[in-house]
Amino acid sequence: MKKGVIAEPKPDDFSARATSAWKVGPHVSSAGGVENAITNAASVGANAFAIFLKSQRKWESNALKDESIAKFKERMKTFGYSPSYILPHGSYLVNLGNPDSEKREKSFACFLDDLKRCEQLGLHLYNFHPGSTVGAGTTEASLALIAECINRAHKETASVVIVLENMAGAGNVIGSRFSDLGGIIKQVRDKTRVGVCLDTCHMYAAGYDITTLEGWRQTMDEFEREVGAQYLRGMHLNDSKGALGSKKDRHENIGQGHLGLRTFAHILGDPRTRDIPLVLETPAYDVPTGSSAAARESLATQGMGVWRAEVAVLNQLAGRSEEEVGEEEIGEMRAEIADAVKKASKARDVKGKKAAGGGGSGRKSKKKVEVDEDEEDARRLIEF
């Protein structure tokens, strides 16, 4: 190999992935090229993953490079990833429910661009947040606008399934109730190309108590009545920092929040969650600004270790009945994830102090930022 040429990664460079009908993995970075998402997923043992196809906070982004598209497709085959288990996430700016036609058209253009990127990469699914009334119209009117945009997008694309995400319920945001999602789908003409992604943190924050097996069953019964079981095309597996019905969308690491690990045991024991992408959006441990290359590499390793632990634990729970998973085992699994989180937190804090040069400013740099995605959506969609 020529000096300075980086070898193409191979599956043998990573630990073997679990064989399971339950496809678990995190939302990974595609920094440096969308093809890097695949090796990032492989490095944590993922059998599914999510990505952003462009900046989620900008209206326009550079086109995907032909070289990146080719490498992405090649690595998908080499690493044995199916497009059916990749769930790209849409832009946070998009609001297809905005009554303002000019602003809605701007959102639609951004939305359609993402769908076409999916087609360029050979991906089958696309997940997005439905939108908001922005306080300027009724929920029913916005549901119709969203469905109209989906129908338009279907005409301008060939195959991608558009997947609506349930929301936590802050402000005027649409989608916290299953009836909202069902109301949109009823107005979509090609129902083979629409579906739903259920976010566990969002469900709990919206008032769906899924912490018990009976609560989970009742919730899914409502989903079947209001939407239809056939429309479940993916899930976001997140624990919750917020309490039941809080409308606070604050994700926590698996087993470390209000939902608890037992919740994920009965979700992964349900055959309805087989053969769909089960994506972790749990807290990441970002590298503090100003960190050295060595510090960034060290922290990235520890941060990926959290996802690796979460994926491993969820794979152990997959396909097992409630009775098969004892409290002692649940405790051991919870401790395994907690230990990985502790190591990543410690690494972040140490690197944060060093990046800030120590002292008082170091304390400020290490502070963990709480992101309330739904509240952020509610504020942002007032404008868009």
TrEMBL record:
Name the record gives this protein: Apurinic-apyrimidinic endonuclease 1
Transmembrane segments: none
Tree of life domain: Eukaryota
Region span, Disordered: 342-384
RNA-binding as UniProt keyword: no
SUPFAM superfamilies: Xylose isomerase-like
GO BP annotation list: base-excision repair
Pfam families noted in UniProt: AP_endonuc_2 (PF01261)
Cofactor requirements of the protein: Zn(2+)
Domain Xylose isomerase-like TIM barrel residues, every copy: 39-300
Keywords assigned: DNA damage, DNA repair, Hydrolase, Metal-binding, Zinc
